[in-house]
Amino acid sequence: MLMRIPNYSKSHSIEFAMAGCGFCNAADSFGSAARFALRPYAGCMVNQTSTQPSRRHDHPFVPYAPPRLDQTEGILRGETFHEFLETRRSVRFFAPDPVPRRMIELAVAAANTAPSGAHHQPWKFVAVADPAVKHRIRVAAEEEERINYEGGRLPEAWRAALAPLETNSDKSYLDVVPWIVAVFAEKSTPQPDGSLRKNYYVNESVGIACGMFIAALHSMGLATLTHTPNPMGFLSEILGRPGSERPYILFPVGYPAPDCEVPDLSRKPLRAALEFYPE
Predict the structure, then answer these.
(1) Which residues form the Nitroreductase domain (predicted)?
(2) pLDDT per residue as tens, the chain (279 positions)
(3) Which of 148, 147, 137 has the alpha carbon at shortest distance from 171?
């Protein structure tokens, strides 16, 4: 499948191939709706008259004039993208098959385009492939999760909400996956002069970046899980992170196991997620 993405910093577009993405039988279960080849921009654009901005700025600004799609084409792409994302599922049964480092780099590069408070980009993605380090993370995560699930730290209502997912303290997949990506939120960012720059809207910013990371993994045929062992302080210790960062989320990354299963769930319908006001 070819998808043409505009490169706004240059006068041309770049093409890249999107891997067929499925969860239990690779491309076979990806679904025909998501097997698409987006048409090139040529012929589906709306002509726009370029104007020279008259506004003045106290800081550097550059022109931003992305191609404007014909609305019919835009709706088609929106529908196709939604159908593609509908094939994404959180996975707890992974194959040990290797995943190229380049795929991790590309997923983080996509996440790094996320909007953030004051454009401070308060995130750090730490990718781990070393089996010994992954095992240390598993042992520490399971220790905390045993307290949560078996030691009573999780409230009963929370445990009841998790019951349909059949989650428990077993995190053996952390030893199986080729990669673990730990995301840290930077409460403040060290500067070259040794000072700390305060960051703003940290949780919101990192959350958006993580969502884009998940979508990027899915576009390459990879699966992941949003794992949030609580508390997560052990990640800072194991991965040697500075005090200006705090653990935010843990992503096991890999291909689904051949016998992968996921809970039989449905998503909130659009009418329950969206309201137009006033009608």
Answers:
(1) 86-255
(2) 344 444 433 333 333 334 333 333 333 434 443 444 444 444 455 555 667 778 999 999 999 999 999 999 999 999 999 999 999 999 999 999 999 999 999 999 999 999 999 999 999 999 999 999 999 999 999 999 999 999 989 999 999 999 999 999 999 999 999 999 999 999 999 999 999 999 999 999 999 999 999 999 999 999 999 999 989 999 999 999 999 999 999 999 999 999 999 999 999 999 999 999 998
(3) 137
Q: Which two tokens stand for residue 114?
A: 């996320």
The token pair that represents 23 in the structure block? 């969860």
Q: Indicate the DSSP class of residue 46.
A: P
Roughly how many angstroms between the first and final C-alpha of the chain, as a whole number? 39
Q: According to the CATH classification, is domain 90-263 in 3.40.109.10?
A: yes
Query: Which residues fall within 8 angstroms of residue 49, CB to CB, at 6 or more apart?
Result: none
Peptide bond connecting 96 to the previous residue in cis, omega within 30 degrees of 0: no
Domain with CATH 3.40.109.10 in the chain: 90-263
